[in-house]
Each structure stands twice: as structure tokens, then as C-alpha cells.
Amino acid sequence: MTTAPIEIGPVEVVEVAPRDGLQNEQRVLPTDIKAELVRRSLDAGLRRLEVTAFARPDRVPQMADAEALLAEVAHDERLTSIGLVLNRRGLERALAAGCDEITVVVVASDGLALRNQGVDTAAQIQTWRAIRADAQAAGVRASVIIAAAFGCPFDGEVPLPQLLEVARGVLDAAPDELAIADTIGVGVPGQVRAIIAGLRALDAEIPLRAHFHNTRNTGYANALAAVESGVSVLDASTGGIGGCPFAPGASGNIATEDLLYLLERSGIATTTAIDPTAVATTGTWIADRLGLPRPPAMLGRAGRFPPSPTSVS
Question: In the chain, how long is the greatest CA-to-CA distance?
Fold first, then answer.
């Protein structure tokens, strides 16, 4: 029996496979395969994509071709391209490459902050403020994502007051969007609701985005809890590929196709019409290119329900 639709506004799905999906995989894919992944995502109906990260090639070799990839796909009028940046040099590269918007990482815990970027959280907040000013001057949309918002692989629990203090620091620079990331997949729905309530107490109007990993099989429950709490944008990775190379065990992005199934069956619309079957096909395709026996996503294995009439023998 299908449950009654949830009265929630349309959710925007941001495709992160080209960046967060690929950066934690052992196999470094050529630029043309990455460009094909972007095009397949656009063909399926996705429009806002985290295309790449402007990071040091020696630390994140999977993203070494950031400029070349943007040159391949930026002309596609369907695409709103997001570039992840960690510092002002990254911003300069993103602007020169023609990114439509940038996302800056601020880590909620010093343990991961130091290993990820070599500076503590307070320094990252200051860097974000400088990047925000420069991006605004360049007319480029700038958002911030608070990583390890639900827990740190090195420091353990991230208390809510600590997280909200970090959020207060980044909100001072008026980001276009504030995202929270469960970098290692430790969050649960009650924690999601508490964090979002705390963020709303700081700023009732800021658009909220959430990025979940399914490392401990809570990612989809967290995504639904986030939407029911007022989050309007969710990240997901086709095939469920990817994770964070600086956070041990941070595998398992929630899969775009599985998230779409969850939203559809829950009566929650997306801001653009996206074909979950096409996304699942791409998930299988990209897993093969990565040398994976199968993608972590489930929809490509089980199929949609109810099945389409053409798929019933």
C-alpha cells in the first residue's frame, strides 16, 4: 500500500558523482569518461552537478584534470557546474575554468580539518570569508559545506554546540547556501532533525543542503528526515560511488537512483524531471569503468516498483 504523499516542496538533487564519487576511487579515469558521466547525468534530467574539485593534484590525483574537464562540458547550457574549492588558489582556478558556482569546505572538527587541509577549523572559517568576498566580487555564487558535521573519524563525536558555533562563523559571510555533510556516515535521523533545528534558529531563511553517506545504512533515512525538517537540496552520487580520501572508512555516498526512488514513492517531487532508470544505467556503466563488480546502488539490481508495463514478461 502506498502511503499518503508528504506535503513537502520540490527537492533539488545535486549530482556529485563526478567529484565526490570519483575522488575516492583507486582508478583514475580519463577526462573523456568523466565528461561522458556529466553528459549522461544531464540526459537523465539532472541539472546541477558537482563537476570537480580544484585541489592539489599530488593529494587528489583523481581531480588533476579539473580545468580540462570543465573545458569539455561547460558549454552545455543544461549544466550548472559546481567546483569544490579549499583555498583562494582553488577559487582562482575555478573562476578561470568558468565554474557557475563554487562550494567551500569548512570542517567541523580540528582533527579532520588538519588532515584534510592542513589548518584548523578557525583558519578554514577565515579562508571561507575571504573566498566569499572574492567570489561575490566576481559575480559567482558561493556556498559552504560543513564537513564532519555528524562525527569525525579522528575526534569522535561533534557536539551540537560545537557544530552550531562553526555554522555561526560561516553564516556571518552570508553564503548563498549552507550544506551539512555526514562525511563518514555516522548520523541518524534524530541527529539530523536536531542539527537542522539548530541551524534554523541561527538563520531561518538560509537555503539548506545535505550530503549523506550510507556507510552504516542510515543515509536514506537521514535524507528523508532532512527533507521533512526543511532541507530543500540533497546531494547524491550515481551508483552510490565515492567517499572522502582523508576520512578512513568514508565510503558509500547515497545513490542518486535509490534516492530518487525514495522520493518518488514518498510523494516528494524533484525540481526537475529525472529518470531513475537512466541514472541506474549510468551507475552500472561508471562502476564498470572503475573496475567495480557492481555499483553499491540497489535500484539497478532490483528495478523500479511498480515495474513499467514494458518490463513485465
Answer: 60
pLDDT value at residue 5: 44
Cα dihedral sign for 130, 91, 105, 199?
positive
What's the rounded Cα separation, in Å, for the pair 174 and 223? 24
Nine-digit cell at 58? 599530488
- Residue type at position 114: L
**Three cell numbers, residue 136:** 561575490
Q: Which residue has the cell 563537476?
A: 51
- pLDDT for 245 equals 61
pLDDT at 8: 86
User: CA torsion angle for 24, 25, 29, 31 (degrees, to 10)?
Assistant: -20
What is the topology classification, in CATH, of domain 12-311? TIM Barrel (3.20.20)
Predicted model pTM: 0.94
Residues facing 115 on adjacent strands: none
pLDDT in tens, 101-112: 999 999 999 999
Neighbours of 107 (CB within 10 A): 29
Residues facing 233 on adjacent strands: 12, 209
DSSP character for 62? G
Q: According to DSSP H, which parts of the chain are helical?
A: 31-43, 66-73, 88-97, 110-117, 121-138, 160-171, 189-202, 219-228, 256-265, 276-289, 299-302
Place of cell 561547460: 74
List the catalytic residues: 244
Count of other CB atoms within 10 angstroms of residue 121: 24
Q: Kindly state the cell numbers that stand for 141.
A: 555564487
User: C-alpha distances in angstroms, 193 versus 46, 63, 68, 80, 263?
Assistant: 27, 33, 40, 29, 18
CA dist 80 and 14 (Å) reads 10
Q: Which helix (H) or strand (E) holds 147?
A: strand 141-147
